[in-house]
Design brief:
mainly alpha; about 0% strand
């Protein structure tokens, strides 16, 4: 599983914040939030037979933004002082997840899907025509 953002991206979004072993949340927690959010996004793609990892540069920029929304919500939740901001980021993240569920090809604009690759041709030696079955 690929992470769609990194801890430095989160620190850049939440100004004047550097995560380490003594901060709340810790750097390890933020890294886990990123992994959890990225895994949730990958699950949507897997359920829709999108080939992973995502490699399209434009798609990765979009997925980074989505990952940041979910991660920032979790970070603000642990910080405990920005409840409204936490809720707002979570709502935006959930809206983006719904968009990914409705349009999973966003992650792969070239359109390569596992089911298309696996089922585009009949198995070797088989025929699409059935003997004794009317074809028309």
């Amino acid at each position: 599983m690929a992470a769609y953002c990194v801890i430095a991206d989160v620190q850049a979004e939440i100004q004047n914040t550097v995560f380490n072993t003594t901060t709340r949340p810790t750097a390890a927690q933020v890294t886990q939030f990123i992994a959890d959010i990225s895994g949730e996004m990958d699950a949507i793609f897997i359920a829709n037979a999108i080939v992973l990892p995502v490699t399209d540069a434009n798609a990765l920029l979009l997925l980074k933004r989505v990952c940041l929304l979910g991660t920032k919500s979790r970070v603000y939740g642990v910080m405990g002082m920005e409840v409204e901001r936490e809720r707002d980021y979570w709502k935006m993240y959930q809206a983006e997840l719904r968009r990914l569920e409705e349009n999973p090809w966003i992650a792969n604009p070239a359109g390569t899907r596992q089911d298309v690759i696996q089922h585009s041709m009949p198995p070797a030696g088989s025929s699409v025509f059935k003997k004794g079955v009317p074809q028309w």
